[in-house]
Prior knowledge:
5-stranded mixed β-sheet; 17% strand; DNA polymerase, domain 1; Aldehyde_Oxdr_Iron-Sulfur; metal ion binding; Ubiquitin-like (UB roll)
Amino acid sequence: MEQAITLLVNGEQRQLRVRCDExxxxxxxxxxxxxxxxxxxxIGICGACTILVEGKPTSSCLVLSALADGWSxxxxxxxxxxxxxxxxxQEAFLEKQAFQCSYCTPGMILTTVALLAExxxxxxxxxxxxxxxxxCRCGSYLRILAAVEExxxxxxxxxxx
Length: 161
């Protein structure tokens, strides 16, 4: 059985027919071709499938697509500007080499975007607490923390300029 839904994905309206048992992760990857949304655990504890729903980090492996009708969703692909310019958080992750295998990176970046929207001046402890639901199997946590601190400086600088 399928259901018609409409999603706003990275600013683009998508009308889709989804199975009743289809997760939002499957819809975004398989139907929308957004490969930054990744499945690892399938039970919402690793953060690899993190997307932003109305600006809030959400584990897409836990949400049935049929329940997401009308949602505004951002994936990593949606952060890049129309001219290809990277988001300040993406820039900071590159500058600080805050990745190794990069499997966790999309979820880490999106969670960081949400954190900085809520708290533009986080402490290192607040960063670690906010990112606690995003696991890095390579152990790049110190570089990730440094990247988030750098991203906060960049976001603050762009807000002032």
